[in-house]
Design goal:
Length: 279
């Protein structure tokens, strides 16, 4: 056998090592399912044993049939589509406004002194307190719903973005000045990249609050949406509808948060931070 043919042979340990790493990755990702599966088993057991009334807390097996019925009729997809569109529009408006106002407040002490006390007072207002006022101002169409969701998304993004800008290391700004950066270049090359970790924290918190405010928004004369499904289940005494709507809201919130996490990992891959996870 020639040396060239011997060198072309694959290392015998490469395939098992690759398979082992693949299984470790799958096992690591699957760990998040352990707690939900245990909760579902306990939930099903306590209802089947009669410790909890099935009318008040339907077992997961019954919820599967309820979800299947809603899926077969197409009703659940309509509710998901309407609610997702409202959250997407409201979150986008709130986040964009928060970026603009947060940049102004974070970069200017004068603007901070002028606006921040008012925003700190407004963010303490409960979501349901806005409902009657928005009904009076905007009527009962989509406008008050989108506005309420935008309000919910605005404050976490605003607060975290301002904190990210104000916590930029002074040495980075001084180095930027040495290299001739000023004005817009200083903002885009120093302040914005340094504040991105805080910004993504705010975006994830704002998106979570947008889903929470959705339920309050869909109390405003809604005829479709997951919040309406919650109300319909309460009024008809169907706990299964209420729980299915809650579960779908949780899954949609998790899915949208995972999308933001993926974007965060991609945009912040340059960071050299501590990671306790095994490589």
């Amino acid at each position: 056998m020639s040396l060239s043919s011997t060198a072309a042979l694959p290392a015998p340990s490469e395939a098992p090592a690759g398979n082992s790493l693949r299984w470790q990755t799958l096992a690591s990702k699957g760990q998040g399912l352990i707690v939900p599966v245990i909760l579902l088993i306990v939930w099903e057991s306590v209802v089947r044993l009669g410790w909890v009334s099935a009318h008040l807390l339907p077992p997961p097996s019954e919820l599967v049939f309820t979800l299947a019925d809603l899926g077969q009729s197409g009703a659940i997809f309509g509710h998901i589509g309407v609610s997702s569109l409202r959250v997407a529009i409201g979150f986008s408006i709130g986040a964009i406004l928060a970026l603009v106002v947060g940049a102004a407040v974070g970069l200017s002490r004068r603007v901070e002194a002028l606006l921040d006390p008012t925003f700190q007072a407004i963010r303490a207002i409960p979501s349901l307190a806005w409902v009657p006022l928005l009904l009076l101002w905007l009527g009962i169409d989509e406008s008050p719903k989108i506005t309420l969701i935008a309000i919910g998304a605005f404050f976490p993004v605003y607060l975290n973005f301002v904190a990210g800008i104000q916590n930029v290391d002074r040495k980075l700004v001084e180095v930027g000045g040495i290299y001739g950066l000023s004005g817009r270049k200083l903002i885009t090359r120093i302040f914005l990249p340094a504040s991105l970790p805080n910004l993504f924290t705010g975006l994830r918190s704002g998106l979570s609050l947008a889903w929470m405010f959705l339920v309050a928004a869909e109390l405003i004369a809604a005829t479709k949406g997951l919040g309406y499904l919650l109300t319909d289940g309460r009024e008809t005494g169907r706990a299964d509808l209420v729980i299915v709507a809650i579960i779908v809201l949780a899954l949609l919130g998790k899915f949208s948060d995972s999308l933001l996490c993926g974007l965060e990992r991609r945009l912040l891959a340059w960071r050299d931070v501590f990671d306790s996870r095994p490589s």
